[in-house]
Amino acid sequence: MTDRIAFQGEPGAYSHQACHETYPDMEVLPCRTFEDTIAAVREGTARLAMVPVENSTFGRVADIHHLLPESGLHIVDEAFVRVHINLLALPGTRLDQIESAMSHTMLLGQCRAFLERHGIHRVTGADTAGSARHVAEAGDPSMAALASELAGKIYGLEMLARHIEDHSTNTTRFLVMAAEPDFAPRGQNGMMTTLVFRLRSLPAGLYKALGGFATNGVNMTKLESYMIGGNFNVVQFYADIEGHPDDPAVARALDELDYFTSEITILGVYPADPRRYGEG
């Protein structure tokens, strides 16, 4: 299999940056959609896929929680990537010439203060690097892009303002997906387990189902619910927990969860990124 890692977006996207930082020796494969990114791994065109799941400023990435359980892939790693947003424009352009800035919706929402302060109109683009490419090709000095430094270098744009994000801790969490699971304990910061489950129809079912994590001292770092199949009555829960399923405390918590659920699927077991705990 080709030692390649797939990501959604144009070259220079933040997902490209995540690939470069996490797997610098792997060849990257840009893909048009998240579905194409997942398909590249399923079909053997790439060995891994880098998928963004949430941003510390803007929240979760739309549709990803629906795609992951249905992808047939497994989470084997996570990567926390510091997102620095830059205002990029045609070479020789001044900041006071910029009337509009194009980027992905999530990025536009992460630097509202700067754009409002400079009276810059927000324009939604398909993605960050694609917006940088559009600005480079359009040749309009009144238009800028919000993107990474990498995108600026790739498309020959000049940086008018650096690190304009509203929050200095702006970070995106990525999951690394593979065709086969890897349950081997690894890393220096402990293991994480991601799972989805559906509750049986019981009074206070969620409260009871989660009780095993509390009584066994297992930290649940994320719990989200979402409807599936277009049915208000069918709810699936997505959870991240600290620990490995073979850890005694985690095993007991999962056994108790199993009693109150109709279905549990482990999406992946992987090492915690040190930046999860403010390190690295």
From TrEMBL:
Coiled coil: none annotated. InterPro entries: ACT-like_dom_sf, ACT_dom, Chor_mutase/pphenate_deHydtase, Preph_deHydtase, Preph_deHydtase_CS. It catalyses: prephenate + H(+) = 3-phenylpyruvate + CO2 + H2O. It comes from the Bacteria. It is an enzyme of class 4 (lyase). PANTHER family: PREPHENATE DEHYDRATASE P PROTEIN (PTHR21022), PREPHENATE DEHYDRATASE-RELATED (PTHR21022:SF19). NCBIfam families: PRK11899.1 (NF008866). This is prephenate dehydratase. It comes from Roseovarius ramblicola.
